[in-house]
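yo

u said u wanted the structure for the complex thing, so here. seqs first:
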Amino acid sequence: MKSHTVKLLLDIQERMEFVNITPRVEDAVRDSGVREGLCLVNAMHITASVFINDDEPGLHRDYKRWLEELAPFDPSPERYHHNRTGEDNADAHHKRQIMGREVVVAITDGRLDFGPWEQIFYGEFDGRRQKRVLIKIIGD
Amino acid sequence: MKSHTVKLLLDIQERMEFVNITPRVEDAVRDSGVREGLCLVNAMHITASVFINDDEPGLHRDYKRWLEELAPFDPSPERYHHNRTGEDNADAHHKRQIMGREVVVAITDGRLDFGPWEQIFYGEFDGRRQKRVLIKIIGD
Amino acid sequence: MKSHTVKLLLDIQERMEFVNITPRVEDAVRDSGVREGLCLVNAMHITASVFINDDEPGLHRDYKRWLEELAPFDPSPERYHHNRTGEDNADAHHKRQIMGREVVVAITDGRLDFGPWEQIFYGEFDGRRQKRVLIKIIGD
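structre next:
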């Protein structure tokens, strides 16, 4: 069994931002030499997500508005107890649970085994600094 | 390490529909010959989910109503920017994020290692056509 | 390829309760002898979640209030069809879908390959009895 580990560094400019990391995951799969296996991609931060969906700017705008409705940013200590610790990012911990921490993707014939529109995104909800994504590949 | 890949074809009659695919995943596990390993099951579409829960029609009815409240179907270009592209399925992209893209299930002694009520469902939110599910099994 | 399977037993006192199971998952990883691989941790119940987030009591209080807003406990048969079966836990099946069933964590150099704040929780939404968590580790 082969394994391969990559940690991506991402400079996230906005508080809430989605970055298409599919090409970098494809690079990791190619470098791994794995032909048949599984590829885990996860956020290493607890206010961020890795998710698979469409690379369409209107949809991403819709997601951001919707997540803001479901878990509004509110740095005050009233809405979120978490923000009584001096943090202001309780909303980001909630948004991340909606969008998920990780994806697991099949590798078949040496490539990500994707449907036609699947793309992998890093989704950050408390950004404006450098962030990390873990890629772990196992297989033969 | 063994690996086994199956793509299920499903004819989805309704816009929103849940299909119990557990027997077909069990078939794939048996065909794989894997005794100890992991089984990934994922939707190959970005308006659909694979999830594990109860096979109880009342619960499925509840899920559909709840998802419709959280992300209502609205083909107009006002509510969802995604629907300005000519699509009408922005709601389906949102519902899918709540229910998730994939499940990973342990294989122990050659079988899906499940709790008593766990069943695997394909959940479609923009159906009325043929859809695909990927099963990827790795192990020994 | 090595594999290792552990089933944790948890005594859940409250209806909704989060338990940090990270030390027990770390024990399983050490016992497995796997240096490079994947670790699946999943709830064996369909009214419960395994999720990764911060071990901060204020945040957990926020999650509980938020999940109660998104899917309120209501044992009557009016709100949830599922509760016409004699159950009172339809809300728990909904809360579990928000928080997820499982996590998959990379194992690198014999340890869970975590970002600085990642901790693994069992989240129960219909507790007050003994519950089970499955840990499945594969790798070399």
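Helices of chain A lie at 22-32, 57-70, 90-99. Chain A touches chain B through 34 residues (CB under 8 Å).
cya
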